[in-house]
Amino acid sequence: MDDFATRLKTAMNARHLKQIDLVRAAQQVGVKLGKSHVSQYVSGKTVPRTEILNFLATTLDVDEQWLLGHDTTAKTATTRVERHTPSSASGNAEGSASETRTDRRNESSPASIHLEEEGIPMRQFHKSTKLDNVLYDVRGPVVDEAARMEESGMHVLKLNIGNPAPFGFRTPDEVVYDMARQLTETEGYSASKGLFSARKAIMQYAQLKNIPNVGIEDIYTGNGVSELINLSMSALLDDGDEVLVPSPDYPLWTACVNLAGGTAVHYTCDEQSEWYPDIDDMRAKITDRTVAIVIINPNNPTGALYPPEVLQQIVDLAREHQLMIFSDEIYDRLVMDGLKHVSIASMAPDLFCVTFSGLSKSHMIAGYRVGWMVLSGNKHMAKDYIEGINMLTNMRICSNVPAQSIVQTALGGHQSVNDYIVPGGRLYEQREYIYNALNAIPGVTAVKPKAAFYIFPKIDVKKFNVLDDEQFALDLLHDKRILITRGGGFNWQEPDHFRIVYLPRIEVLRDAVGKITDFLSYYRQ
């Protein structure tokens, strides 16, 4: 990494380019590159992925291998750097690419890379090209910078991730007690789909949600919902298959669709309509390659809760085009204002639906990794797909067995989370505070969330001259030591939103809002 950073700076200095010049050049050719990315490369913290490496090499007119620190092309690269003048800094992004680039798979050829000291071949290992279209900025470059700051002794307030435990939300005592009592009984593997007791409790919960045609064989436990999202996409998608995914979304959905070889096609959720899905936009994006619709309800990152009339329109659309429905309902027990969550599967007995939920959020036990998915509706049309799910489920052996052992306890009896979501409860009062406080900041507006523990405020990009939301998040981190997640991290295309997790107590949120208010009083990008 140090070699790359050194040579990148050498090439930039030779052409009299600053970091912002590379960012602007990237915008001109449609390459996604933020200033924080460039600063990471220049400081030697990371090496760019293939697409960005190609862009940098082409823009700077140097050889990719030289940039990476390989000596075999050093003379050629150095010569190119030395002979260029500042006047050629832009507009050359497409010219000599074929001359300077080497096929990625050939880069690792032993004949092309040598250890200078010993003269023996050295192989290079690259990450899979399947990761080129995978984004997960909830734990991305800005989070890496926050970790670096913490390592240097700074305190960072983390409002970027929905992790209840650090903010004083504790696992119910009964759940901890029951897991401890069963530890010696859960040392071996369970059935690949999960313990019978856990799946029985989940099946009964699905019945309470009016999800139709569900038997014990239709329940799959997982190491959190995240594992099951990945598994369900991998079992379904062939190259080129399309899945409709909301924008903004929980980014794992888009990542898993792309990683499985499919294409995530984003439909817009409308901020002017309580962040409900834009049905017309959804309809316009259905093609003959579309196989499924994903909904996240209650929604992360917006906190929206979809009413039955919106769900019915989605069901009608799926029915018309014979599409599967994947419904992420992990926050279904964190609904406020006396509203009720309706599972979309309960409205679609004739369609094939996969419903996801778990205990991470509703029972404040994110670290236990307890999730599940429920297959329902017309399973005959998905018989082959279900075989694929079973194969992948068997291959991963089983999910965490001690965690499975407390599903029955957690889903039965008093639900402690209910105390948090009513007036006087922590989540309810913190939601009220953050909503009013953010809307009081000049240049900031926010739709009131109805569920979960996130809010997705909008910033006036003209007022603050925001062109890059990642840079905005990085600047806020550096100036005020507050870590948020940029809107682009949720596949939102404009640089005008960010997500705040309102799990901290009101006094902490008050301090954070005060710092954000001060930051925005002077900030211009």
From TrEMBL:
Matching SMART domains: HTH_XRE
A GO MF label: pyridoxal phosphate binding
CDD domains: AAT_like (cd00609), HTH_XRE (cd00093)
Comp. bias (Low complexity): 87-99
EC numbers: 2.6.1.2
Family matches, as InterPro entries: Ala_Aminotransferase (IPR051926), Aminotransferase_I/II_large (IPR004839), Cro/C1-type_HTH (IPR001387), Lambda_DNA-bd_dom_sf (IPR010982), PyrdxlP-dep_Trfase (IPR015424), PyrdxlP-dep_Trfase_major (IPR015421), PyrdxlP-dep_Trfase_small (IPR015422)
Cofactor(s), names only, from the UniProt record: pyridoxal 5'-phosphate
Family membership: Belongs to the class-I pyridoxal-phosphate-dependent aminotransferase family.
PANTHER family linked: GLUTAMATE-PYRUVATE AMINOTRANSFERASE ALAA
Protein name: alanine transaminase
Organism: Bifidobacterium biavatii DSM 23969
